[in-house]
Amino acid sequence: MLLTFLDSKCTNLCPIEGAQLARVQRALGSVSAPIVVVSVNPADTAASVHAFVRRSGWRPQWYWLMGSRRVLAPVWRSFGIGVRMNPGRVVTAGNTTVRLGKGIQHTTALFLIGPGGRGRSIYLPPFVPSQVAANVRTIA
Do residues 109 and 13 lie in contact, with contact meaning Cβ atoms separated by under 8 Å? Predict the structure, then answer.
């Protein structure tokens, strides 16, 4: 199983990791390795998740776990994932006011979990999809 922590509404590193995970799936061919995502954004919705998965090009056998911050935070902590809601800063120019830098900042990591729930490897994006696929095959 491949476990990661993503924000379906992210426009920064999450789409890059999403595309890399699609490349891992293609490199695996018929070898099964479910992708399990724990949301880092309590505002994720089924629609935003499906849009992210479609843009990333994932094949079936993925699961995206969503919930409130209260529900998700213990999972983040158990894997050492830092999540910070960044309110951004307000900038006013004339009659226009905008909020810059608003979003969610979080640790980005991919965990390869082996049989029995034992962790095998941790990858920090950008990782090499062919290496991840080779490691998945080794424990499959």
Answer: no
